[in-house]
Structure formats: structure tokens, C-alpha cells
Amino acid sequence: MDGHVPSETVSPSDASRATNAPGCSGDDDPGPTIRDTGPETAVRGDEPAARCPYCHQPFHDERFETLHRGLEHPSRLSDRERAAFERAYADEGTDIRWFRLQALGTLLLLYFCMLFLYAVVT
């Protein structure tokens, strides 16, 4: 199914509303502009450590702001900012890889502890 709605099920008033919906190319008024402000971010303390210069979202750490700018505003980055984003992205990948290894080690330890406990109990 290609998502096409048969024409007999769409009333003329529904069709005119669909063409004048926000974001669609209508005749005169495209409708109100809805701005996505992103998720609410609670920052501890009085002042955030960093704030995005484009969308003004606060961040606890400048590293998070650098990652945000590279992921959400890539076309606005200068070469220096892009290099900082790539470094932060690589560091984040290393941190995630280390976390995964620790989680795997914890699960293996838990598995063998449960196996020995089962062997002792039965």
C-alpha cells in the first residue's frame, strides 16, 4: 500500500485544509510557524556551563554543547568547530565502548555467580 487515499473518501473541506496545513504550500497563509524548542533541560546551579549559540539550549558541559552543535547544526559549523566536534565524537565513542565492555563484564560475572549458586543449592 502506497499511502494514497482514494478521492471519494476525502471531502472538499478536508482537501483544502490539507493543502493549507502548516508546512504545506498553500495559497496565501501557510499557517502558524511551529518552532521546536527541543526537550526541557534542567541545569543544576545558577548558570549553565555552555549554551548553544543557535538554539540557546543549555548544557552541563561544553563537550555536550559541542556534540549538540555538530549533530543538530552541522551546516553552521566552521572548520575549527567541526574539528572540535569530530574530537568530541571520537572521545564519546571511546567512552561508550568502555561502558559496553564494563556492562558485558558485569553480566558475565553475574551469570557465573548465579551458575555457582545454582550448583551449590542443587
From TrEMBL:
UniProt key word Transmembrane helix: yes
Record domain DUF7410: where: 52-73
Transmembrane parts of this sequence: 103-121
Keywords from the UniProt entry: Membrane, Transmembrane, Transmembrane helix
Region feature (Disordered): 1-49
Ranges of biased composition (kind: Polar residues): 8-19
UniProt-listed InterPro entries: DUF7410 (IPR055833)
Signal peptide (residue range): none
Descriptive protein name: DUF7410 domain-containing protein
